[in-house]
Write the C-alpha cells for this entry.
Amino acid sequence: MTTQELGIFGENLAVSHLISKGYTILDRNWKFRKQEIDIVASYNGQLVIIEVKARQTAEIGEPWMAVTKAKQRIIVQVAHQYIQLKNIDLDTRFDVVSIVHNTFRTKIEHIEDAFTACM
C-alpha cells in the first residue's frame, strides 16, 4: 500500500469509526489555500475538527505524534477560515484519529480534545 493509499484508507476508516460513534460528517478534505482539514464533523452540539494520521507501523512513534505544534497552528488557521466562511457559531474542538494499519492489525485511537486553540 502506498503512502497515498494508506492516507485515503485511514481517512475512510476514521469516517466510519466516527459515524459509528454518532458523529455527523460535515466536510472532508476541506481546503483553504494550500492547507486542508481532513474531517469536519459535529457531535453533541460541537464543531469537531479532526486530523487523521495513518501509518503502517508505530516503530518510530504513534501516528498522532506527527501532529506537531506547527501542524496544530495550521489546522487552527484553516478551522478559523472554515468557521468564518460557513458562519458557524458552535464551540469547537480539535481531535486526532491515529491509525496503525498493516497485515497484522488495524489499531484506531480517537483522541478527543487532542489540542486546544483560542478561536
About this structure: The two ends are 37 Å apart (CA to CA). The CA atoms of residues 16 and 51 lie 14 Å apart. Helices lie at 3-20, 69-86.
